[in-house]
Amino acid sequence: MSGIYIHFPFCKQKCVYCGFYSVASMRRKADYWDALCKEIELRKDYLPNNHIDTLYFGGGTPSLFSPEELSSIIEQIRRFYTWDDSLEFTMEANPEQLTMSYLHSLKLLGINRLSIGVQSFDDDILHLLNRRHSAEEARKAVENAAAVGFDNVSIDLIYDIAFRTAEQWRSELSQALSLPISHLSCYSLTVEENTLLARRVREGQPYLPDEADTERDFQILTEMTQAAGFEQYEISNFSKNGAISKHNFSYWTGEPYLGLGAAAHSFRSPVRQWNIADIQQYINGIQNEKPNVESEHLSIEQQYDEYVLLRLRTCLGINMKEVGERFGAACLDMLQRQLKNVNPQHYEIQNEIIRLTQHGRLFADAVAAELFAAE
């Protein structure tokens, strides 16, 4: 399996928590579009066989772009890549842009999966996060998508926010789970460097709750999604009727992918590449046919660490037999030794597969750190 990710780094305004590269301006959009089309051609031989199984438009805000603009990108991809009817074609979108007419146009373009950035069904919290839509607009966007015929709709929610009570969180989840969605991504509010949220937290504004409230909200999340028939296939992701995000799952399992656009990452084992996180420098590099790209060749130890970190987050877990086959007997011996340092309440082993317990999922990064290759 292989996929393409295209980054649309433009927004109307920056959300307080967003650590992804984007700018609150559309000024260089036309030049960026030309560069993106040229990069598609320049990197046409990166993926094996030039066949893709997933295509993902992310951002930023891809839904700021017209159907005609999106179509030009799709046609350029078609020049160099093939795909069949099973292609998962995802587009991220903000609720305020998803009118019925726009949704009809997206459907005609072949987009068959929407990832809608709801974040909250509480207007006060949406204001706190600097979102542009209302709770009612979010509900309407999901209903419009279903009415147009999108049967694979995901929404994002943020939990772990100060001032939100358990009852409020249950109410928001209840609203989400009552909508025609097949996928739910729920993320703990995280303070990323160089964000408005980081500045406000430094100034003493109370965005983040106590640790006990984090555990409480996570417990409510897992209980309510399970009761609604959703499977937690990754710590932050829940799917119904098998509607996992194939694109994101391929990241977690180490499949090759090509990232196009400013700040986009690509991976073809054992090398990771990433484009410069600056629109003008990205454009200049592509125009001169000298892309501003950095790369990293992952050592066996780094590949092992990444495997541990990502697999622990998923339903797949760490397959000890696979560790031995992929990384060698020394890595397997080290894993088994270091596992003794992990709190036994945080994991379980079945058929040589290590998986986090429900409680252990709260400590996934700490557990992974215990199992990393010794430096």
Compact overview of the structure:
It is built from 14 helices and 15 strands. With 375 residues, the protein is of the alpha/beta class.
List the helices and strands and how they pair.
Elements (H helix, E strand, L loop, with lengths): L2 E6 L20 H14 L11 E6 L7 H14 L7 E6 L6 H9 L4 E7 L3 H6 L6 H14 L4 E7 L6 H13 L4 E6 L7 H7 L8 H17 L2 E5 L2 E4 L5 H7 L4 E4 L4 E4 L2 E5 L3 H9 L5 E5 L2 H14 L4 E2 H8 L1 H10 L8 E4 L2 E4 L7 H8 L4
Parallel strand pairs: 1-2, 1-9, 2-3, 3-4, 4-5, 5-6
Antiparallel strand pairs: 6-8, 7-8, 10-11, 11-12, 13-15, 14-15
Helix pairs in contact: 1-2, 1-10, 3-5, 6-8, 11-14, 12-13
Overview features:
375 residues, 15 strands, 40% helix, alpha/beta, 3-stranded antiparallel sheet, 9-stranded mixed sheet
Describe the structure.
This protein is α/β, with parallel strands linked by helices. The chain is 40% helix and 20% strand. It has 14 helices and 15 strands. The strands form three sheets. It has a nine-stranded mixed beta sheet with strand order 7-8-6-5-4-3-2-1-9, with helices on both faces. Strands 10-11-12 form a three-stranded antiparallel beta sheet, with no helix packed on it. The chain has a three-stranded antiparallel beta sheet with strand order 13-15-14. Strand 3, helix 3 and strand 4 (113-119) form a beta-alpha-beta unit. The two termini are 32 Å apart.
